[in-house]
Amino acid sequence: MTARKVLVVEDDKGIQTLLKAVLEPEFELLVTSDPDKALRLLKSEMPDLVLLNLGLPPSPQDHKIGIQLLRKVRGATPRTRVIVCTGLSGYEAASHAISLGARDVIYKPFSVEALQAAVRRESWIARIDRLQGLDVPKEEFLEEMVGTSPAMRRVFEMIRKVGTTDMPVLITGETGTGKELAAKAIHERSRRKKGPFVPINCGAIPETLLESELYGHERGAFTGALQLKKGKFEAAEGGTLFLDEVGDLLPSLQVKLLRFLQEGTFERVGGQQTLRLDLRVIAATNVDLQDAIAKNAFREDLYYRLGMLHIHLPPLRERGEDTLLMATTFLKRAAAFSAGKRIRGYTREAVETIQSYHWPGNVRELSNRVRRAAVMAESPEITPQDLGLTCEASPSVHSLDSLRAAHRRIEMELIIKAMSVHHGNLSRAAKELEVSRSTLYRKINEFRLEQFVYLTNPAHYTAPSLVKSLEGHTQ
After folding, report:
1. pLDDT digits over 449-471, tens only?
2. In this structure, is residue 91 part of a structural domain?
3. Which sign does the torsion angle of CA 349, 354, 355, 357 carry?
């Protein structure tokens, strides 16, 4: 993954050198002290984050230039996140900057650790923001598949690895686990990302038509074939062909697919000319192909050819803390299309129900229920009734853990539940969990739950450093 771009607007050469030392090479720094050049870089380089010194010359004491530049940045690119830097004497200017949309304040002299944490957090949140339909490059769409559980982290790592190859990939998993999303993520990470991604559901097309849909046909190949037709294989030239429910292929089509995977050639239905194509095949199925092989319903040689690279997507009931994370993500997206309703989150009962329900339809069922709830809800908080579920839902199933793993899992689930119930309010969640705010914040970082906290309440991350400063003034 390429380094995140951070636009640094700073006139102090010493601080410029320090920032380069502590932030590179994790981030690509675009450094300038000229406000006009900063605006040009903002438009041409589209950085993820702006680190802005408010005290720019020629008026470093009244912060006029810095505030003016902040207004222009917010006006030109409202979604760009800005961290402002100032001395302790600039407290009023910092408060003004927050009111104008700055996300955080770093006071000089600053802690290197605090600076790194703020830059990492805000650049990371910028990525999440763009996943909500903003201007994210397609190669970053892997995170469209939401998940922090160990099982999904392994899936993400596999996707990143297989994306760099051209070999066939077999994706397995129950219905609704996101197999097509995984296939798209592989395509977007491959050298073929500029080519087409062509999906076809092999189980949704009548057997008599499937061969023609896949390979095309010549004019006169059969009754009704009035002209030449190119199939999905030719449509995917230079890109990726995604064969969903490949386990439903007839034996004759399995032979033809095997030949293409081995030689890269095929003929259209009714054709004599052998065609050669350059494309990648990704296949998916929700059936047990090993069992199908034992029943002579699927070719063993095709299985091994397709499954040279194999990714298994776990069912939602085995993904632990991911369920609430996805429920929150789906609700945020659905709320944007809920006819002006102001939806804040889930009730405590809904959170408990989401966690306990076994989700037989997996991610697809969760997404559909949340979208329905956003339409049906009559209050700002989603209830189990809005989801069409009851609190007596079947308990989720956890595999046998070690004591340490079980303790960690329970801690994580309690934090997720508390943050969801209190809509990302750190103080209220900490009080309910009977821990300090600092302990809760440390646990959120330890369990990598920043994405979940942000989704429950983006305003929570508005300006933690400023909040800390205000707390210090009141003590």
Report:
1. 765 665 555 444 443 433 333 33
2. yes
3. positive
